[in-house]
Amino acid sequence: IGTMNYYAHRNIKMKYSDYCKLSDNKKQEILDHHKRMSEYDVDIVCYCFMPNHYHLLLKQRIDGGISRYISRFTNSYTKYFNTRKRRIGPLFQGVFSNKLISTEEQLLYVSRYIHRNPYVAGNVKDIGNMIMYPFSSMQNYIKSDFCIIRPDYLLGKSRNIGDYISYVVTPERWKKRK
Fold first, then answer.
1. Which end of the chain is more exposed for a tag (fewer CB within 10 A), N or C?
2. CA distances from 25 to 31, 104, 136 (A)
């Protein structure tokens, strides 16, 4: 999750592993600078990391931003994992796949799919526990801790966080309320 957040910034000059060695104050200084400059390749709308795959819902801020971001993020994580496990070679199978989202309905559906993934895959047994899955942005939505997550794309002007959580957990009830 740290790697994902770090590489969303556009003009990062150091590797994430070097950044992790810095003092907390220096790390915060670097992140604050990038936030002030609003220098991002992508906005992260939501995410979910599963044991054997991950999902990211991204909004590209510059041409080629998503490709650049995915390359930096996956290369960094692969190097970390390979070093830690004393292995070599690619970690992920094939190239990343992407889908262009062109309607608000698609955006909401894809975000719901991502946030429900731990429950649907059986990683959590109860849908109520799904919202506390530690490797999902759903916790950011619940705690209103948006650090780098951009909920405004999902929530817009007409929804609040409670409505969105209700949609993810019980989509049938949410549709009836509309």
1. C
2. 10, 39, 26
Q: What is the pLDDT at residue 178?
A: 45
In whole angstroms, give the CA distance from residue 24 to residue 137: 23
Q: Which residue has the tokens 């799904």?
A: 130
Q: What is the pLDDT at residue 127?
A: 82
Straight-line distance from the first to the last Cα atom of the chain, in angstroms, rounded to the nearest whole number: 34
**69-73, 132-136, 143-147, 158-162 — which is least confidently predicted?**
143-147
Beta bridge partners of 46: 57
Label residue 20 left, alpha or beta by phi (over 0 means left) and psi (-120 to 50 means alpha). alpha
10 Å CB burial of residue 63 (0-12, 13-18, 19+) is exposed
- Give pTM, 2 decimals: 0.85
What does the alpha-carbon distance between residue 105 and residue 84 come to, in Å, rounded to a whole number? 41
Residue pointed to by tokens 């390749």: 41
Residue pointed to by tokens 């220096």: 26
Q: How many Å apart are CA 78 and CA 92, to the nearest integer?
A: 8
Mean pLDDT, the chain, rounded, equals: 85
Alpha carbon distance 28, 26 (integer Å) = 5
